[in-house]
């Protein structure tokens, strides 16, 4: 009988510690909104709607850009586009997200770059309008800019 009481007591202590761990665990950080839409002008390489998707893990954030309006002019291998997305911070300055990350794309496929990593601070409010996306493909630099503020609004980081 004594062994059962010890096992029951140990189970209760373990359960209480698990519940306390959940209560005191830090809340997951999140960026809001998780995605935003812009109208992008990439000059002679195309223009139209693009979606920027944001994620956050502490001070690390990533951005992924997709656009069916802007297409690959030729077939592109995986990780062949060097991209920098520069967003304007409402408190001043800019924040850049840079990487050589893209899926393989056939000529005419929608353009996708990212995830592009960068560093953010709690409270950062980042907007594409006033910033730019530069993509370098085979030594050719393509610069895209937003023609209006992003919708539904800037990315705000926890």
UniProtKB/TrEMBL annotation:
PROSITE patterns: TAT. InterPro entries: TAT_signal. Residues 1-30 form the signal peptide. Keywords: Signal. The keyword Signal applies. It comes from the Bacteria. This is Lipoprotein. It comes from Streptomyces justiciae.
């Amino acid at each position: 009988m004594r062994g059962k009481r010890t096992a029951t007591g140990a189970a209760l202590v373990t359960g209480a510690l698990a519940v306390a761990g959940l209560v005191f665990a830090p809340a997951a950080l999140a960026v809001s909104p998780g995605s935003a839409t812009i109208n992008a002008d990439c000059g002679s390489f195309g223009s139209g709607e693009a979606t920027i998707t944001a994620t956050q893990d502490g001070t690390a954030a990533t951005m992924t850009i997709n656009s069916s309006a802007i297409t690959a002019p030729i077939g592109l291998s995986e990780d062949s586009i060097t991209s920098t997305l520069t967003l304007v911070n409402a408190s001043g300055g800019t924040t850049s997200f840079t990487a050589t990350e893209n899926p393989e794309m056939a000529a005419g496929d929608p353009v996708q770059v990212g995830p592009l990593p960068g560093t953010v601070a709690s409270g950062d409010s980042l907007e594409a309008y006033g910033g730019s996306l530069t993509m370098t493909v085979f030594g050719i630099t393509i610069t895209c800019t937003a023609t209006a503020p992003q919708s539904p609004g800037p990315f705000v980081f926890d």
